[in-house]
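Here is a complete protein record:
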Amino acid sequence: MREHAQRLTGLGTTIFAEMSARAVATNSVNLGQGFPDRDGPDSLLEDAISAIRAGANQYPPGRGVPALRQAIADHQKRFYDLSYDPDTEVLVTTGATEAVAAALLAYVEPGDEVIALEPYYDSYAAGIAFAGGRRVPVTLRAPDFRLDLDELRAAVTPRTKVLLINSPHNPTGTVLTDDELRGISAVAVEHDLVVITDEVYEHLVYDGLEHRPLASYDGMAERTVSISSAGKTFAVTGWKIGWVTGTPEVVTAVTTAKQFLTFTSGAPFQPAVAGALALGNEYYDALRADLQSRRDLLCDGLEQLGFGVHRPQGTYFVTTDIRPLGHTDGIDFCRMLPERTGVVAIPHQVFYDNTEAGRPLVRWAFCKQPEVLKEALTRLEEL
């Protein structure tokens, strides 16, 4: 049998699948994969059950059920004062991962360059490869993981087509500042680039900081594919309900690719998410406060154990440097960890092209119940 397509080379089994399997085999506390160990709000769950019983079990419209598209448009207006027509400027997707893949397929020709902030979520590399593009990393470096705008400008070439921007940023937890976002916008406008923004952690921002969508900056509305999802905000990562907002031209381009990936999905979940998006500010405020307390619980505990801790500004994840504990390679460390301590984490270097920058770094998820985090910290005392 012939070999697989070269664009699949190096993609293999995801690190999340490998480490989750190790967690099960060793009965470990899994702080690797970023999913919460609780369900979302009761109203959301009951609305989905009601939709199933009411018969919302067949294909929904290709662009998403009207109620959800309207709710997404209302959400963008409420939080960011961005106006979108729910009929022409909103697309519901099978999670943000599909949205990113469809956007890359819509805009990237073979040989085009896609600049992405590394470390980057592993599906970005796959999506760029599927589209035939070439990824060009701009590295967010420890300890502060800030964007070097000079490095971003230097990365642009005549073959650059797309900027793939993730803020709040997984895995570092960086929330891009106004100056950084203005710098990105200036580069995009100067070089006439498409910008794909992954904003799934938009409501998971701490210490009084705020998320600002790139689409809200001058010159960006017509060139930005804005992506988010319900999974992180409402603790329903398995529902896979994401969305794209943008101009009619942007949404049509992404829809053209998306319709041949899943066509549509999540019929009973879509109306439930529509209701959840309209929850009052008290829900969003409580979500941030709860996750910030869990962040601090885990960060404080890891510091006491001797890790070098980079306290995140957003997301589900905290990054640590393992060198103070006498380790230098995150992959070796994470493969050793389940058998030795009964805890699973994720090595940073799998998210890098410049693997040396991530070699001593390890990512931990704090979106778990406090007692689970405390148990993990107790087990890590074995180190």
Observations:
- The longest strand covers residues 160-166.
- The mean pLDDT is 96.
